[in-house]
Amino acid sequence: MAQGEVLEFEEYVRTRQDALLRSARRLVPDPLDAQDLLQTALVRTYGRWEGIADKRLADAYLRRVMINTRTEWWRARKLEEVPTEQLPDASVDDATEQHADRALLMDVMKVLAPKQRSVVVLRHWEQMSTEETAAALGMSAGTVKSTLHRALARLREELESRDNEERAARALEREERECCAA
Questions:
Q1: Long-range pairs for 48-54 at CB < 8 Å and ≥24 separation?
Q2: Suppose 26 and one of 13, 103, 121, 161 were both cysteines; which one would form an S-S bond, judging by CB atoms 3.0 to 4.6 Å apart?
Q3: What sign for the dihedral angle of Cα 102, 23, 37, 154?
């Protein structure tokens, strides 16, 4: 790679690294995995930097590399995972509602298949259009729409389920307090 290309890549990484790390963080739940994902994607992109004719599309190219890398990791870990009846409790360090909502949403996103998660992240967090999402993921716009529809329905279902469980637990606690007080 020519010296000018190396400097251009370094400048690109310096200016876009925060936004790219946010994208990686939305693709994988663990912050350290997100950093690893971004680093791996940057290394893979560096080797192909000269081949990206329109550098304005570098973000889309890098996001696609992150999605593909995440999918590779998921496939490699898939055999090691064991399904359970209950999801682990999400810990929330910050007590504000915004952070709690974000933690809940990130936890709930784990129920989605990788393809669904990618579509939701690109459409809602990255605010890409249906066509941009389709191009980034290499699928048709119709597939993006139907995948997004099914993913959002699954997220609603999971959130309602969790809400019902929480209400039942609160009702049980009230009953126990009333029994003990009587």
A1: 49/1, 49/5, 49/8, 49/9, 50/1, 50/2, 50/5
A2: 121
A3: positive
The Cα 133–Cα 118 span in angstroms is: 9
* Residue given tokens 């509602």 in the structure block: 97
| Buried b or exposed e, range 4-28, using 16+ CB within 10 angstroms | eeeebbeebbeeeeeebbebbbbbb
User: pLDDT of 137-177, one tens digit each?
Assistant: 999 999 999 999 999 999 899 888 888 888 877 877 777 77
In the chain, % helix, strand, coil (3-state, to 5) comes to 80, 0, 20
Question: In terms of Cα–Cα distance, which of 52, 58, 53 is closest to 15?
Answer: 58
Q: Which two tokens stand for residue 97?
A: 């509602």
Mean pLDDT of 6-15: 90
Q: If pLDDT is split at 50, 70 and 90, which confidence band does 25 have? A: very high
Q: Which two tokens stand for residue 48?
A: 């192909």
